Amino acid sequence: MKLTISMITLNEERAVAKVVRDIRGVAPEAEIFLVDSSKDRTAEIATELGCRVFKQFPPKGYGPAMDRAVRDAAGDIVITLDCDDTYPVETIPILVSLIDEGYDLVNATRLAKRPKAMPFANYLANRIFAWTARLLHGIRTTDVHSGMRAYRKSMIDNVIWDPRGPALPVDMLVIPYRMGYRVAEIPIEYRDRIGASTLQRWNSTLWTFKRLWRARGVRRQG
Ligand SMILES: Nc1nc2c(ncn2[C@@H]2O[C@H](COP(=O)(O)OP(=O)(O)OP(=O)(O)O)[C@@H](O)[C@H]2O)c(=O)[nH]1
Ligand SMILES: [Mg+2]
Predict the structure, then answer these.
(1) The domain containing residue 151 runs over which residues?
(2) How far is the CA of 43 from the centre of ligand 1 (A)?
(3) Assigned domain for 222 exists
(4) What is the CATH number of the domain that holds 10?
(5) Tell me: the pLDDT tens digits for 102-113?
(6) What is the pTM (predicted TM-score) of this model?
(7) Substitution site in 7, 10, 34, 87 for ligand 1 pocket (most atoms within 8 Å of beta carbon)
(8) 26-30, 97-101, 192-196: lowest mean pLDDT where?
(9) Are 59 and 37 in contact (CB under 8 A)?
């Protein structure tokens, strides 16, 4: 099956070259696809390194960028990760093998144990989000916000979510689960990021609960 590694980027010029080279080291055949809204040289660097880059201007925010990053991927398997060097690329082959085995979505959790690279407040919030997801939807997860996942492309083509507003990764996990798709979760190490974070804590928290609550409307199948 053909593989696409999709990343969305906002001013990641300090990290992008390392991340792309690291990906090539473990997945030399994969398409690397970026949806970029940067003001810096991220897109130029990625293009020089042979990535396919879609420039999203004017910038539309995280959700619309991520939606395009997965929907416009050419592969049969789409793996997402942040372009900030926080996620371990060595996990990519494991994610691929689990999709090959028949899973439709594999979530790489940063929170199997407490990651040193995550502030305690973020850790606590993430645990509460995961617990709420289990309570409302029955999904056994420790991380509804992981940026590193593998998706079967044919599944994405069948799933509808609302890309507007923060916290889209919540919908991208919980909605397929409710629809009866096969979801697996594996633990990963999470590292300190290169460059500045774009996380807006309060808005993201509010939207996480909003999305978790709203997804109850998705009819359970399977
Ligand atoms: N195209 C696009 N990319 C974005 C946008 N916001 C964030 N990104 C990218 O999305 C990825 C995740 O954003 P981060 O800033 O790392 O957010 P985070 O992982 O929640 O926060 P950290 O844990 O601090 O890294 C990174 O690759 C960003 O460059 C956006 O509005 N548009
Ligand atoms: Mg990040």
Answers:
(1) 3-217
(2) 15
(3) no
(4) 3.90.550.10
(5) 999 999 999 999
(6) 0.97
(7) 10
(8) 192-196
(9) yes
